[in-house]
Every structure is written in structure tokens, then in C-alpha cells.
Amino acid sequence: MILTLINDVTDKQIEKIEEIARDSGFIPEVSRGESRTIVLIKGENAILSRGKFDPLKAVERISSISVPFKLVSKNWIEKTIVKVGDIEVGGKEIVYMAGPCSVENNGSTEETASLIKSIGGTGIFRGGAFKPRTSPYSFQGMGEEGLKILKDISVKTGMKIVTEAMDPRQVELVEKYADIIQIGARSMQNFELLKECGKAKIPVLLKRGFTNTIKEFLMSAEYIASEGNKNIILCERGIRTFSDYVRFTLDISAVPVLKTLTHLPVIVDPSHPAGRRDYVESLSLAAIAAGADGLIVEVHVDPEKASSDGAETITTEAYAKLIKKADAVALAIGRGA
Hints:
The structure is a single chain. By secondary structure, this protein is α/β, with parallel strands linked by helices. The protein has helices at about 10-25, 110-120, 145-155, 170-175, 190-200, 215-225, 255-260, 270-275, 280-290, 315-330; strands at about 1-5, 25-30, 35-40, 60-65, 80-85, 85-90, 95-100, 120-125, 160-165, 180-185, 205, 230-235, 265-270, 295-300.
């Protein structure tokens, strides 16, 4: 249940509403916007208790949230901007996240980061220290040593770091070194991991599972939000369909659909659905045109020698051309500086 309060509501009136909600066995959550203050009343059949709030002068309107993903619903908040240092994901400007699939200890990760930094336009560096792989014989990542490399890159370049946690036990460790915790597609319904990330103090980048519906995707985000962490970035990364021309089918329609359903920012991973580097640019531009708030792209100084996903990884030169074109598309649709 949502209580929309009057414009000149006082702190004392809000405290009274919170008190009534708690005494009734519900959990109140206050959201103060620029022009409106809204209170979300969480609990089983909360709408049936609207009579307790109707007489209050501070309450202008009472409405119900019919969708199950209440905390991430657009009915609750119009728009969320996730701040990562000075970077705003979900603001007017497109946010670029770039880097190799896996962190490597041969100097290539640092070289890639240096080149990405020199290109400009990228404030967030991506790289996997823990890697979920289909085959148990594939490279599984460097673990904490990889996280240390990422931290060193952040210190030297000033770029923020996004990297994946695969297990609830890894969340605290990732939080120690990174600025954003990524939950990969295969972990989207790892509910213990979702809950642990919900307790983290840094933003979470949640990727959609390749067999999951939009509703399931948002319910996973709801798990994170329900534990207290509202700084969630959604990422569409392609779904499995009957098409075998690409690795996955990028669900471009998911971007505008999510924008109508949730207040959370939405970015797109064009690399994994492409499966090959010559498709990455086209999918990136399509994502920006569809309204994505950013891209997360696999980039390597020498993709042919990458430890993982080399086929879909673009060179730093190709990345420079990509963001130039993406910025042009963004300007054409009213985004960007």
C-alpha cells in the first residue's frame, strides 16, 4: 500500500504514520522526493488496513501496488539514480563499463585498463576475479589475487570497479575491493546470494538469467531491495531462444518494458548475446536507441589471447569507435551531455 502525503507534510506527521504502521504489524518505508513524500506500507494484506490511515490529514491519497515486486516497482518511486562515486547510473548521461571478461596476471589487464582510461568516457572498469564457467575445466578466475589487481587498477586510474560474486561467502570479500557487486546471469536466482548482496553497502549490478522472464528478473531485484540495498542496476544480457546465429538473443524490448515497470536503471551487455566481436557494436547502438542507461562491454588489449570469452571481446581501438557512435546515438535521443 502506498500513502501519498500532502505537500507541506511535517516530520511529526510522518512519524505518526510510521507509528501507526508498526503498531499494526506493518513495515513503513518513507521516500522523500523533490515535490512529494510517499510512504510504502509493507506487509500481508496491508491495503485492508487503509481505514487506519484514511482519517489522517497528512495523507492525500492511498493506493495499492498490484505487482509482486513492490519495492522496485515504478508505482513506488518514479526514478532511481545509482551513484558510484561521482558517476550517476540512470542519469542523463550514458554510463560505460568496460574491461576483460577475466582478470589476468600477465599485465594485460593493467594495459587494457590504461588504454580504456586514455580513450575517455569510461568511469567503471569491469573484470572477473571469480568466473562461473559451463565447463569445470575452464579458467575459473584468480580469486582474491584478481580482486587485488582490480583494486590496484582503481587506485592508479581512478576508475571504479565492478566484479562478480558467485557465492554469498564471496560478497564481503568483493565489497572490500570493488565499487559494484555483479550478480551474473547464472546466479540470478541464487536467493541466498541475492539476500547477502541486499545487506551490502555498495551498489549491485544484477544480470537477467538467460531463461528468466521479466517478472522473475524483477523479483530477484526485489530480494536485494527487501534486505535494504536499493542501489540496484539491472542488466539485460540476452536470452536463450531457438536462434542459433548468435550466442543468445538480445532482448532489446526488455529495455523499454523494464523502464515502464521499475524505477531502477537499466543497462545492456552486448558482448554475451553477440558471441562474436563483429556484432557487439550494432547491439550496443540498438541498446542505447532503446533507452538503456549504459553498456557493459568486454574489451581486451589482445582478445585472441584472452583467458575467456575472447571471441566476443573487442579491441580497445574498436571500443573507442563504439563509444563515439554510442554517444552520437545518445545525443540523437536526448541523452548525454
